[in-house]
Structures are given as structure tokens and as C-alpha cells.
Amino acid sequence: MRLSHYFLPTLKENPAEAQIASHRLMLRAGMVRQGAAGIYTWLPLGLRVLKKIEQIVREEQDRAGAIEVLMPTIQSADLWQESGRYEDYGKEMLRITDRHGRESLYGPTNEELITDIFRREVHSYKDLPKNLYHIQWKFRDEIRPRFGVMRGREFLMKDAYSFDLTAEDGVNSYNAMFVAYLRTFARLGLKAIPMRADTGPIGGDLSHEFLIIADTGESEVFFDKEFLTMEAPVDTPDSDAGLQKIVDTWTKPYAATEEMHDADKAAGAGELVSGRGIEVGHIFFFGDKYSKPMKASVQGPDGKPTNVQMGSYGIGVSRLVGGIIEASHDENGIIWPESVAPYKVGLMNLGAKSEDCTAACDTLYAELQAAGIEVLYDDTKDGAGAKFANMDLIGLPWQIALGPRGLKNGAVELKNRATGEKTEVATADIVKQLAA
RNA sequence: CGGGGAGUGGCGCAGCCUGGUAGCGCACCUGUUUUGGGAACAGGGGGUCGCAAGUUCGAAUCUUGUCUCCCCGACCA
Q1: Of A126, A293, A346, A398, which sees the most CB atoms within 10 A?
Q2: How far apart are CA A147 and CA A20, in angstroms?
């Protein structure tokens, strides 16, 4: 993409409304603009990151056997009255009345809707297990939205729902998601720690939150130092026992959020670290909490109807954009992990008024594209300093600087954004090196 | 919802106390000179000061109301 044809409104100064790093940097890097409190427009650069995260989440859900659907944002109040949550959910739920006076709502979550789909279509234990997910915008009318997209009112979330005949099978489905989450966060370049969690309004008795550690996290967390060196599973076991083993490994060391922290239990554990955490995923197994009131049952082998055992599994996709920045930035800007970077490399023409230099940059740009490398090409007439500063701000993993000086030597300067390391690379070799 | 703060060109701010021609930096436009870490000079465009009432000869400035945004707390992917 040529910057001269792109839409990247960066800011040199810090907007007054943004307090924390990710919010500030997302505004400055031209990723988002606020519409109302906790509601954002995603500009091109931010949208690319959002889509990349979404895709990684999707791939890992698919790998774990979940099947993608897409449920609507607007739901009828009927189903919520059936589950009893229409009253329970309170003011956080945005309620809407349509022209016919029908009570509706902008979905804050989808347990009711998916349970309704399931009960209408699935009637036999032979069709189990099933895990259906979607990636959709949600709305929760938070009392106080803050921290940009990390705590917005409108947010993009992946939510999966598992259906099993027995509680034992349900735990297997839960474990499969647990492992998928470890893999997902690792691919996003994050160190996420599973912590036993309170089940809140979703309900149930088995639940883990996945938190990434960052100074600006919303809750205080305590965890065994061991987590910092644990590696996410590379292969996904295809046996229930294999899954259980991984879950056991990851739930054995002590880890708890403030509200679940038990100083006595922690005392017997390993070397404890405390810090602040950002919740990026939350999984629940809640048995028949919804299937019972909503009569979602299948016929078992014995011919008797049985309420299905359910679990639900959320990942805050839009929150992750902010979360990744919190975990990966410096004083100059964002440092994207390569897996979610909006472009892999930024090409800067430092001699935009020289025909030779521009021709060399145009050629290199075409070659990079031909090699399938995602490149943002700063072909504007801005000064060199402004180009460097902008590239650092938007945080692409690699920067190529090509100006009159390099043109003379047949070399470009390649900079690694994360390490700051700069190397001279022969222009002829640069594409090959980046493609590797 | 309780407590605190703020609304003045696109962004960051000053002016308000003590009412009297709306200002600065950045950004933007034109020209000239520059050109490897946010260039220089000259010229220029853009704001009914969140909104509404009130006080006054006169309101960005004083009074009242209202809306919005931000921060702290309780709540949350």
C-alpha cells in the first residue's frame, strides 16, 4: 500500500482524552477514532490488526473442532425472559423497542440465542458433541467505559458454546478450548496465564480467566513464577487424556486474580509473583444452567430426554488489540508482533524528490509485493525525520530506508523495530531476506 | 451511581479571576530554499469560545440550567 493513497491520520501530539499507552498509541497511530464513550470507528490500520487477530482466533477455534456461525447483534427479549436473565442482566444490557413495540436488545452475549438454535435442530445424542462459535460485535452498557478499546461498550468478541451429553464429555470440550486458548494467545505473541475464576452472571462451577500481564491491567494478580517460562503446546492432542494432561500442567502452579486469591494456599505454592493483569479470555462450564430452563435436551442411548451439558468460551478480540499494545510498545510507539502486524514492513523513500531514488523505491516496492510481503510504502514528500518517527509510531516489525545515500552504495538500511538493530543490506538481497 | 476535572479552528493549549476587536504552537494551503531521525523563511485559509436561558449598553469571561468527554471508586470479554 502506498501511503500517499492510504488513510492514515497520525497525530504528533497526545490526545488529552487518552491516558493509557494503548489508547494513546491507537489514536496517534491512526488506528481508531472515538464515536461516543466506549464506541469506536476502526480506521484502516486498526482494522487490519483487528482482522489478523480475528483470523488467528478463528484458525485455532477451527483446529479445536469448533464450527463457525454468525448470530445477529439484535436479539428478541423473549429468549432472555425464558432463561430468566432479562431481569437479572440489569442496566448493562442495552434495551431497544422496535416500531411494533416488541422488546429487543443489543446482545451482550449469546447463550440464549445459541441454545435456542441448538434445541430446535439437535435431538439425538448421536449429534454430540457440538461446539458452535461466532465472532460478532457485542454491546454492554458499561457504567464507565475507559482505556479505549480495552474497555469499550461496543466490542468484538469470539464466543463459543459447547454441547455435550454428559458432564464428563463437557469437561473434555472445556479442556479442548483451554488448550486452544493457550495456542491462540501464544500465536498472538502474548504470555497468557490461566487463572481460576469467579463465574459471575454466566454461572456454573468450572471457569478460568486468561490474563496477560501488563502494568495497566485492571486487576491485581498473583501467580507462580513458573508460568513465565512455560511454553504453549505446539500440537493439539486428539485424545481426551492428552488434553487433560495439558490442562493439568497449566492449572497446577498457583495463579489467582485478586478476588480469588487465597494467601494460605499461595503460601504453599512455588515462588509467587504479583502484577497486574488484563483479562483477554474467559471460559466456563456451566452444565444445564441454560439447557434446563430453555429445555434444550437430546434423547440419550436409553431413549430418555437429557438436558445437554454446556460451556461457553469468550475471547475479547477488540480488547486484544489494546492488550497487545500494552504488552508491546516503547516511548516511540507500538511494536507489533509479526503475527498481527498490519504490514510486515515499511518502505521509506528518503529521496522522494529524486527521480532515481523514487524509481529505485518503486521497483523495490513492486518486488516486495510480488514476493507476497505485506508492505506499507511511504512515498510521500515528507522529510526523513517525519517518516522515521511515523514508522516507529505505527510499529511495523521491519523498516526499510532507501535514500540517495543508499542508492549510491546499492544498499538499504533495514531496521528491526523491536530490537532497534539496523543493518545495511544489499538492495538485491533485501526481498529474499524478508521473505525468509 | 457517588466523588473530582474539562469543553475555545483538525490536535495540544492560553485568555476567564478583574466583561470591551478571540490568541499561541503543531497541522493545513501557496511560493522559495531545504532533504538520512518530526526542516527554514515569507504569505494565507479556517473558530457564532459545547448548548440554552439570564444579568449587562456590551458575555469566551458573570449567573442558572443542560449535554458531552476524561479521571478515581463499585461492576465487567
Answers
A1: A346
A2: 6
For A146-165, what is each residue's pLDDT tens digit? Answer: 899 999 999 999 999 999 99
Would you list the domain boundaries of chain A? 3-334, 345-435
Q: Which of residues 279-308 of A touch strand B (CB under 7 A)?
A: 279-282
DSSP-derived 3-state class of residue A85: helix
**Which strand B bases fall within 7 angstroms of a protein CB?**
1-2, 11-13, 25-27, 34-39, 68-77
Please check whether the domain covering A3-334 is classified as CATH 3.30.930.10: yes
pLDDT tens per residue, range A370-414:
999 999 999 999 999 999 999 999 999 999 999 999 999 999 999
Whose C1' is closest to the CA of A91: which nucleotide? B75
Alpha helices in A193-279 (DSSP H): 240-251, 263-267
Please give the backbone phi and psi of residue A286, each rounded to the nearest 5 degrees, phi first: -130, 15
pLDDT in tens, A162-215: 999 999 999 999 999 999 999 999 999 999 999 987 766 555 668 999 999 988
Reported CATH class of domain A345-435: alpha beta
ipTM score of the complex? Answer: 0.92
State the Cα angle at A246 between A245 and A249, rounded to 5°. 90
**Whether A325 CB is under 7 Å from strand B:** no
